[in-house]
Amino acid sequence: MTDHQETATVPAARKDDGTPIVVVDDVRHSFGSGAQAVHALRGVSFEVRRGELTALKGRSGSGKTTLLNLVGGLDTPTGGRISVDGTDLATLGEPDLLALRRDRIGFVFQSFGLIPVLTAAENVGVPMRLRRVPAQEREERARTLLALVGLADHAEQRPGELSGGQQQRVAVARALANDPDLIIADEPTGQLDSETGRSIMELLRAVVRSEAVTILVATHDPNLIELADRVVELRDGRIVDASTPTPTP
Ligand SMILES: Nc1ncnc2c1ncn2[C@@H]1O[C@H](COP(=O)(O)OP(=O)(O)OP(=O)(O)O)[C@@H](O)[C@H]1O
């Protein structure tokens, strides 16, 4: 392992100095080259403010997943700059990107991404294992987080024994495991019926407040956009509107 083995799960001090947690500046991204190239992002600029839930909306193929992957350091843009918490991702080598993804960012996916043979509590413990958090501390935090997402009584169940909505709650708890600054969620309600989907969005809304985390969520579900503090719309790889604050409830 690298020298990034931190065992603490103590929350890092939230630096709420008014600076955005994510800055995306003129980002372009293409897949392939020449005549076959797909220009997924064509000069995208926007910021994600700390402590907010920002929704990235847009039709299928508009570039949402591509953009989330770049912000999460899973891919490198063809052009432009992305900074997370003041760090330009282009300056980070793979070990530091790995540490950033492990320690500072939580990920939630459409398909939940839980490990079928592990219990809910063990799934939540996976990111902490990667940081070598001691077993007892891991178990305690996993149970605290499962209670937070309303699954205190389901810690020992495996994903196959849980509903889709419950599985996504486990995934949200897992995303919070290492007390990240930022959660990136890609269509987290895409496989859920609308009522369950709404409850997951309400959960995300609640953890923004209770866990002082920032969330960037891609969705094309218009019913869910209204729960966001801010909406960024992508169309054909370009931002259409990056400044729509929704009314505070
Ligand atoms: N690995 C890849 N290779 C080639 N083209 C790709 C690849 N990934 C995405 N694309 C293309 O890039 C464009 C943007 O795709 P992206 O998945 O980012 O859109 P999206 O808004 O997330 O769509 P969806 O809502 O369906 O997930 C699309 O034209 C897609 O076909």
From TrEMBL:
Q: PROSITE patterns recorded for this chain?
A: ABC_TRANSPORTER_1, ABC_TRANSPORTER_2
Q: Which UniProt keywords apply?
A: ATP-binding, Nucleotide-binding, Transport
Q: Which SMART domains match?
A: AAA
Q: Does the keyword Membrane apply?
A: no
Q: Which SUPFAM superfamilies match?
A: P-loop containing nucleoside triphosphate hydrolases (SSF52540)
GO MF, one term, reads:
ATP binding
Which residues does the UniProt record annotate as the domain ABC transporter?
22-248
**Gene3D superfamilies on file:** P-loop containing nucleotide triphosphate hydrolases
- List, alphabetically, the Pfam families matched: ABC_tran
Q: What name does UniProt use for this protein? A: ABC transporter ATP-binding protein
Taxonomy of the source species: Bacteria, Bacillati, Actinomycetota, Actinomycetes, Kitasatosporales
